[in-house]
Amino acid sequence: MHKYIVWDVDPEIFSIGPLSIRWYGLLFALGFLIGMQIMTYIYKKEGKPEEDTDTLLIYMVISTVLGARLGHFIFYEPEAFMQNPFQVFMPPFAGLASHGATIGILLALWLYSRREGSHKTGQTFLWVTDRIVITVALGGAFIRLGNLMNSEIIGRQTDLPWGFIFMNADYRGLTEPFKVPRHPAQLYESLSCFVLFFFLLWFWNQRKEKTPRGSMLGIFLIWVFTLRFLYEYVKENQVAFEDTLFLNMGQILSIPAVLLGVYFLVRSFQNRSMSAG
């Protein structure tokens, strides 16, 4: 007889009147708080102005939320976006796309690197992105744990012993037919991000200011989006139109991200070889 994990977690930790504290929000905020401490440590170790991390945090919070929201509507619900673009900014902010967040973060860091004084302190686009991906990997791990607490982004049915029965899953408005053992896809992605976080932190710690420019960004993009492409095979499609596609939207968007990662990684080591020569 198979033994599965019955997942019946309340996404809400507690509430005080109309105020509700949820696991997802707590984990989302925790990613930024810990990430801020890591970036402050990195800035200190590499002799950068530590006060700049306050500005960097603002860039990251706005770009992550806005990019993820816009990405969700543009990639998954374009009709809803065309009917009412302002719902991007309206609570409860249901629907966040990691590909949109990635685009938003890269754009924001490009703008951050062009600030007056950034180049004087060596905070170029590739310098910043190579360090920030350490914290983004950690944030991604926390966010996917938040998805698990919400019983969302559920996996396909499985007979594996670690299958989760999501008692509170609401998949496309349906609940009861989906209370069967499923891949804990959120947990797969969370663990992958934790592995990436520790690897990138180790990679940076070995080289610090000698880290090849673009190498960590390349590693991040290749790791995250190659695995995202593969994990989609054990996940239910998010929206109905994906059921008619050979590759779903998550896989389609992951391909250019992986190719971009290969470009940055190859370029970083080519530049290092030229410098050494």
Automatic annotation (TrEMBL):
Compartments in which it is found: Cell membrane
As for membrane topology, the entry says: Multi-pass membrane protein
Q: In which pathway does it act?
A: Protein modification; lipoprotein biosynthesis (diacylglyceryl transfer)
Binding sites annotated in the UniProt record for a 1,2-diacyl-sn-glycero-3-phospho-(1'-sn-glycerol): 144
Q: Which GO terms describe its molecular function?
A: phosphatidylglycerol-prolipoprotein diacylglyceryl transferase activity
Q: What is its EC number?
A: 2.5.1.145
Its main localization is membrane
Record keyword Transcription present: no
Q: Which GO terms describe its cellular component?
A: plasma membrane
Listed Pfam families? LGT (PF01790)
Q: Which family does it belong to?
A: Belongs to the Lgt family.
Task: State its role.
Answer: Catalyzes the transfer of the diacylglyceryl group from phosphatidylglycerol to the sulfhydryl group of the N-terminal cysteine of a prolipoprotein, the first step in the formation of mature lipoproteins.
Name of the protein described by the UniProt record: Phosphatidylglycerol--prolipoprotein diacylglyceryl transferase
